[in-house]
Amino acid sequence: MPRKMTINMGPQHPSTHGVLRVILELEGENVVGSDMEVGLLHRGIEKLAESMTYQQIVTLTDRLDYVTSMTNNITYVMAVEKLLGIEIPPRGEYIRTLIAEMQRVVNHMMFVGIYAMDLGAITPVFQTFRDREIILDLFEMISGARLTYSFFRVGGMREEIPQEFFDKTKDFNDKLLGMIAEYETLLTRNRIFRARNIGVGVVSKEYAINCGLTGPVLRASGVPYDLRKAKPYLMYDKMDFEIAVGDNGDCYDRYLVRIKELKESQKIIAQCLEQMPSGASNCEDYKKYKIPKPFKVPAGEVYFSTECPKGELGFYIISDGTKSPYRIKINSPSYINTAALSGMIEGALIADVVATIASLDIVLGELDK
Amino acid sequence: MKKENLKNMNDIGAAEALKKHFPSAVESAELVNHEAVVYVRKDDIKKVLAYLKEKVGFEYLFSITGVDYPDRTPRFDIVYHLKTLEHPLQLTIKVKVEEGTDVDSVYDIFKSANWCEREAYDMVGVPFKGHPNMTRLFMWEGFEGYPLRKDFPLYTEDK
Amino acid sequence: MEVILGIAIILIKILTIFGVTMFIAGWTTWVERKIIGDMQFRVGVERTGPYGLMQPMADGLKLFFKESIVPDGCDRVTYELAPVLALVPAIMSIAIVPFAGSADSFKIFGQTPFIAANINIGILFLFAWSSLSPYGMIFAGWSSNNKYSLLGALRSAALVISYEIPFGFSIIGILMIVGSLNLIDIVNAQGSYHWFIYRQPVAALVFFISIVAETNRPPFDLSEAESELVAGYFTEYAGMRFSLFFLGEYIMLFVISSMFTVFFLGGWHGPFISYDVVNNTWVQAIPGIGILWFVIKSYFIVFVYMWLRASLPRIRYDQMMSFCWKVLLPLSILNIFTTALLNLDKL
Fold first, then answer.
1. Cβ-Cβ contacts under 8 Å for C253 (sequence gap 6 or more)
2. Domain ranges in chain C?
3. Residue B63: its chain A contacts at CB < 8 A?
4. Measured between alpha carbons, how far is A26 from C154 in angstroms, rounded to an integer?
C-alpha cells in the first residue's frame, strides 16, 4: 500500500499563474486527488460596483483580466448600453471589433510564451513579449496606459482614435503572420513539445459541456461554439473568419486552437481596417454619459457576454433605476475553466499538472474577482 | 417543448413553452428588457433543470447568482443562466428563497454548478442541499457575514 | 632533488589546472548569460564591469556574504554534507582533463603532459566520480525536509540509473578500437583528423545525450525543473551552500564537455599536425597551441549546451526514462556489436 503525499502547489509557485492554490495528493509523482483553493486575490469587485456609478465601473473591469482589459471594457459597456438601449454608430462598432481582435492577439501571444515557459522552453516568451509590446504601444497611444486602459465608455470611447493608430496597426498586421510562423518553428512540431502535450489533460466533449467550459478550451474539445458566430455582436457578422476547433481536447489541441485563432484574428483585423467607415464613433447624445456627471439607467436586468480571448465573459446586471447597479455578476472564463481542473489532472504527473493549468490560460484577477 | 422546435423559437418562446409544460412548477415567464426570465418554485428547480438539460437541450449552465432583496419576502433570488450550444437561446431561471432555508443543489446534473453554488453560498449565504462540499469559495473559513448581502457594510472602521 | 622537483611540478600543475578551471567555470555563467541573452533578443549582463564581465565575481561575493539559511526540521549533517558531495566529484574529475599532450606542454622540467593525473584508468576514474555526483542531489533533497526537494531528489535518482548505462556503453566502442583506458592514448589514436565523431557517430550521439542528462542541463533538467518543482533538490539552499551546487554544476559542465572533446573531437589536436616518430607522438604546427584547440573545442560543446537550453522545452521524467532504456541503451549496444564486427582484426 503506497503512502500518499500531499503537496501544496501554490499560492507561491512559479507556474500557478498568480495565487491559485492547488492541493495535490500524490502517489509517487502521480496525482490521485486534488483540491483547489481560490480567493486569495478576491477584491470584492461585485460589491464595490454596487457603490459606484456605471461609468466608474469601467475601471474595475480593467482589473478583472488584466491581460485583456480592452475586451473587458467592451463587454461591460455593451452590457450597459443594451440596458440603456443605446446604438453605437458603425465606426464605433468597427473600432471595437478591431481593438477586441488586437486584444485577442495580445492575449494569445502571451499564452504561447507563458505556456512554452511552463513547459521549460525559455525563448518563445521573449519572442511573443517582444511582439506583444508593439500592440501595447499602440494601445498606449490611444489610451495612455499599457494594461489598464479604461478606454471604452458607455456610449462610445474616451477619445477619437488618430489616423496614425490605424496606419501602424496595418503595418503590424502585415507582419503578424510572419511572427506566428516564428513562434511555431520552436514549438508546433518540436518532438519534446508534442510529447509533453499530446494526450495530456484530456477533456472530453461531454465533460466540457457539462462543466460549462468556455473559449478555446471548449473549442479544443470539439465543440464549435464561438459567441462571435453563435450570437454575433459588433461587426462580427460582416467578417469572414473561421472557428478554430480541436479534436481530442488535450493540451496540444488547446495550443493549436489558439495559434489558429491568432491567424483568424489577423484576417479580422485586416478586414476591419479595410472596411473602416468614417463618421462619428460615439453615440448621438454621448455628452449625456460623459464623466463626471452620473446617469440613471432604467430598471431591469440584462445578461450580456462576448467572446473574450479566454472565453465567454458575461456581465449580469440588475438595475433598480438609480445611478449605480443593484447587482452585478461577473461570469468570467478563467473561473469556469479552473473549476473543472480537478477532473482534468486525475492520474496525471506533476509536469502534466503544470502543463494543464497553463493550457487553460487563466488569470487570477478574473477568477477571484 | 421539444428539441426539434428550438430552432424556430426565441428566448421568450422557450420560456413560455416551459411554462406550458410545467404549469404548476413555473410561476411566471416574462421578458425583462431582453432577457427571458422564468420564476420557478423552489422545490421544483431540480426537476425543471433536469428536464431542460435532458429533454430540451439546455445543456450549458454557466452562471449561478445570488441576489439579495432585503425588503422582500422571500428575501433572496437564486438566478440560473442556461443556454443551448446549438441555437442562440438563453434562459434566466430564478428561484425565490427565504432566509434560513436552502435550495436543492443541481451539482449532479451540471458539474459546472460546483463552484457556482459555492460562490452563491459564500456571497449571499443561501446553502445548497446535496452539494458535496458546501464551503466558502472566495472568503476564508471563519469569515463572518455574507459580503453581497445588502446589509453587509462596504466600509468598516479600523479597529 | 629529483623527488622534490617532481612534487613541485605536480603541485604547480594541480594549482594551475585547478585555478584555471575554477576561473573558467565561474565565467562560463557569464558566457551563458550573454549567449542566451543574444538568442533571446536581450543584451544579457552588462552593468558590472565592461560587458558585464565582473558579474560572476559580484554574484560570488553576494552569495558569499549572504546568510545561509538552514530550514527547520532538516537533517543537519546530511544537509551540510550535500553541497560538498555535489562539488567534490566535479573537482576530482578535473584531475584527468588532458588539456594538452606532452609535446605541447612546458619543457622546463622535461616533457610532461598538461594533465594533473595521467592515470591509466582515466575513463573509469571519470565514470566513478561522475556517478557520485547524484548523491549530492539525493542527500540535499532528502535532508531539506521539503517535498519539492524530495521529488527532485527522487527524479535525479531515477534518472541516474537510466542514463549511466548508455553513458558507459557508448564509450566501449572507442575502447575496443584504441585498446586503452588512458585519455592521452585515446586522443593520440585520433590523430589529426581521424576523429571518433565520424568513426563512431552513434556513440557520439548517445554519449552527448547522456552527458546532457549527466550535468542536469535542459532539456533534461528534471531534478531542478523550476516550473514544476520550484528549484528541485536545492530549493532550501541559500548563500554559500547554494553556490557550491552552482559551481559544481558549471565545473562538471566544462569537464564533461572536455571529455566529449577527448573522446570524439580529437582532444588538443588541431589541423596540420605531424607525427614525430622519434618520440612516438604527434606534434602541433605551432608549439603550445594545443591548449587553445582544446579549449575551443570544449567550448563549442558548452555552446551547444546553451543552445539546447535556449531552444527546447523540458522533457517529462517518465519519457526521459523510457527514452534512455528503449532508445539509447539498444543503440549503444548495437554500436558495440557493429564496432566489434568492423574491427575483428584488432581483437
1. C25, C28, C215, C217, C302, C305
2. 2-342
3. 303, 314, 316, 329, 331
4. 14
> Could you give the 3-state DSSP secondary structure of residue A73?
helix
pLDDT at B17 over 60: yes
Using the 8-state DSSP alphabet, how is residue C100 labeled?
B
- The interface predicted TM-score (ipTM) is 0.88
Residue among C299, C256, C297 nearest C126 (CA)? C256
Q: Where are the beta strands (DSSP E) in chain C?
A: 274-276, 281-283
Q: What is the pTM of this model?
A: 0.88
User: Using the beta-carbon criterion (under 8 Å), do A230 and B60 form an inter-chain contact?
Assistant: no
Q: Across the interface, do A122 and C230 touch by the CB < 8 Å criterion?
A: no
Size of interface A-C (CB pairs under 8 A): 78
pLDDT at C106 over 70: no
CB contacts under 8 A, A 136-195 vs C, are: 186-187, 190, 192-193, 195
Lowest average pLDDT, out of A132-146, A302-316, C14-28, goes to C14-28
Q: Tell me the fold of A4-366.
A: Cytochrome-c3 Hydrogenase; chain B (1.10.645)
Which amino acid, residue B132? Answer: P
- What is the C-alpha to C-alpha distance for residues A229 and B88, in angstroms, rounded to an integer? 10
Closest CA to B77 of B32, B42, B36: B42
User: How many CB atoms neighbour CB C94 within 10 A?
Assistant: 23
From the candidates C314, C318, C321, C327, which should be mutated to test the interface with A, based on the most A CB atoms within 10 A?
A: C314
CA distance linking residue A257 with residue C199, whole number of Å:
46
Any idea where the domains of chain B sit in the sequence?
Answer: 4-129
Q: Where are the beta strands (DSSP E) in chain A?
A: 5-9, 21-27, 30-37, 152-153, 156-157, 300-308, 311-319, 327-331
Q: Note whether B133 and B118 are within 8 A (CB).
A: yes
Peptide bond into C219 cis (omega under 30): yes
What is the Cα–Cα distance from C332 to C203, expressed in whole angstroms? 6
Considering chain C, what is the average pLDDT of its residues? Answer: 82
Chain C residues close to A192, C-beta within 8 Å = 219, 312-315
* Nearest CA-CA distance, residue A70 and chain C, Å: 28
Q: Which residues of A are less than 8 Å from C36 in CB distance?
A: 122
Residue bearing cell 440603456? A84
CATH code reported for the domain at B4-129 = 3.30.460.80
Residue for cell digits 533533497? C141
C and A: touch, per 3+ CB pairs < 8 A?
Answer: yes
Q: Which residue of B has its CA nearest to A79?
A: B34
A55: closest CA among A151, A160, A147, A153?
A: A153
C-alpha cell at A349: 504527473
